[in-house]
Fold this protein.
Amino acid sequence: MGSSGVGQYPTKTQVQFENFDDENIVTSAANNGKKECNGTPKDTSPALPGWYADVSWPGEAHIYKMEKIIFQGKSEFQELLVFESSRHGKVAILDGYIQLTENDEFAYQEMLTHLALCSVPNPKKVLLVGGGDGGILREISRHSSVQHIDICEIDTMVIDVYKKFFPDIAIGYEDPRVHVHIRDGIAFINSVPKGTYDVIILDAFQPMGPIAEVLADKCFLDSVANALRPGGVLSAPADSLWHKNFVVADTIEKCKNIFKGSVNYAWTTVPTYASGVIGFMLCSTKGPPVNFKCPINPLNPEQNGVAKGPPKFYNSEIHSAAFCLPSFVEKAIDPKRY
Amino acid sequence: MGSSGVGQYPTKTQVQFENFDDENIVTSAANNGKKECNGTPKDTSPALPGWYADVSWPGEAHIYKMEKIIFQGKSEFQELLVFESSRHGKVAILDGYIQLTENDEFAYQEMLTHLALCSVPNPKKVLLVGGGDGGILREISRHSSVQHIDICEIDTMVIDVYKKFFPDIAIGYEDPRVHVHIRDGIAFINSVPKGTYDVIILDAFQPMGPIAEVLADKCFLDSVANALRPGGVLSAPADSLWHKNFVVADTIEKCKNIFKGSVNYAWTTVPTYASGVIGFMLCSTKGPPVNFKCPINPLNPEQNGVAKGPPKFYNSEIHSAAFCLPSFVEKAIDPKRY
């Protein structure tokens, strides 16, 4: 294919707005110097007016019609865009990545939370790093055994915007067990006394590269392991199994060395994330053994905490199923078996 | 949002080509009078030159850069477009719908086939309706108990194009047990003596509406049930669980009345299908009971038939996991339980 007229498409980094009050035309702009996780810069773009383009990988994008721009702002840490979509309700874009949509956020939030909390008996103290939207707090709130929930979120803009525009998600903040710490997550983790938490949930979520980077940061993971009690559990998002450079085997090996307990990869469907799938990494520290595939602390459907109803996605069967992997993923994780 | 500059985007029905030999510019055209499954016509479109737009639902599309147009043709039945994509290998578009991509076809083909064939003991005679690409034949070929495979495909163009451009998929035709019938599937099914097949696989695949329509056709399903032996099994694609108008409960009820055995909905991940998910409907006729959730006829990893290697996706664990449903799907299927 020739070069003229092709290779030009909207990218998702640094959205800009023209005619904001009138037509809500969104023009995606240049690359802002950031790199794709595969090391190649994103294409620069002419615009697809009125549409938001989520560029999964070069040569592919998911586009959403923006019915109405609801919020656009920039804090000292990141840019946040909220728009009303035709089909997915409100959509939140953080630094150019889809963070969540009202239509399918529950799948991610419920699985990230309950894959961890339903795998340990009687969890009492939980730390959430990131997750300023409040959806994970809403899910933790369903667990009556929990006595104390710390959330460490660096960006008050995120909290404020979600409280204003996504009340059914930010409702998690209404749980009186929640203690909000506006701080850098790494500094917070480093300050935590050894063995403080039963469960730590990492929701500093940027699809693809950055997750792998966080999970590749040995110092950070050492601090997380240190902050967990023996047999405590970390839950973190991980790359989609369809990621072209799916390298979860290295991450699992590293996590096994650091956490010294069970380490498992799981996955579920979230249609608005790239490839329609998100992965999860579950790790337990040395101590009472944890079998992530068999939840021992099932949710009580009568106890929803501050959530307005029972979980829409999670149940014990889908918990176990999330750890069943396609053969090509099993092979990627354990090449020696094949 | 105002009307000018928005509400215009590429649609997928009736692709047209301009400057075919030079720039391979694809311009999606108007709606061709077809309707979306929800009854509303698709938007008409200006083009996104050099890209193919798969419009999942109004207000949303998945776009793919077309590196090279490989084939475009029209038979008396349908239009077929094959292009080389940046990331998914060759992509086949049938009547404006993504039929498959080289990158992820195995997930659909393996699951549709083995969810059925691994659920019955010693299957000997199998009918495939549609599936002219040959991928399902390739998967059936792994089963050494099978003695006879009929495929009824109406369109020789599909077979010819796949044999030429997708040899690793069309390799299924090389199995000597395969008997090709170029006929209308419904007429073929109606001509089959009662109780002929152990397994029938329906691969007349068009995402969203049309599948539901096929599964809603009582006469057709009666003929399928008649063509199956007692305790025989039908496998067919079904709507994604994320479909806005997910109405699988009605389909299950209808299938239970017709087949009188087990009827189950399953799902798996196929990133290039709308919402990243495809559903499956599994039905068994009255006779020896079939428990779809517990495969009793596992694949032998040493026996791959004409396939070039072991399955990439299917295994017994992912088989059972495919029947574990998110809570909102369970509720949609059995509202009385909630």
In short: DSSP finds ten helices and 14 strands in chain B. Chain B touches chain A through 61 residues (CB under 8 Å).
